[in-house]
Amino acid sequence: MKVALTHLHFRSADPDAAAKWYCDNFGAEITSERPLSTTKSIQLELDGEHMMTISGRAEGENPVAGSTEPRYGLDHFGFETDDLTQLAARLKSNNVKFNCEPWTMPSGSMVAFVVAPDEVSVELIQRPTE
What we know:
Blueprint: E1 8-11, H1 15-26, E2 29-36, E3 39-46, E4 49-55, E5 77-80, H2 84-93, E6 98-104, E7 110-116, E8 120-126
Parallel strand pairs: 1-4, 5-8
Antiparallel strand pairs: 2-3, 3-4, 6-7, 7-8
């Protein structure tokens, strides 16, 4: 039996701005937009794989605000890079907020955390080369 992760779905106060943020900062590409209930759904691809869906607040919904504080449930998701120093510089030039500056863990991996739209916590990691 095969099981595969197909996407991450984000609810956003401003889905267009959130989609643009992932495109501008991580090279995602908008592949489609479609109606979803009384809002819209934007599909993004990153690195050739369909992985993100961003939708707005539908009529009758009252979404709870996001938080970058540690929490139960989904705490964060991560992007891996081969050059965290370069990625961090690009993100800082785009005024992306870091809630944890790049640092090297005892394992040798370099890690940082940024704040995405709607207070989503995103880990950035560069694993050591062998």
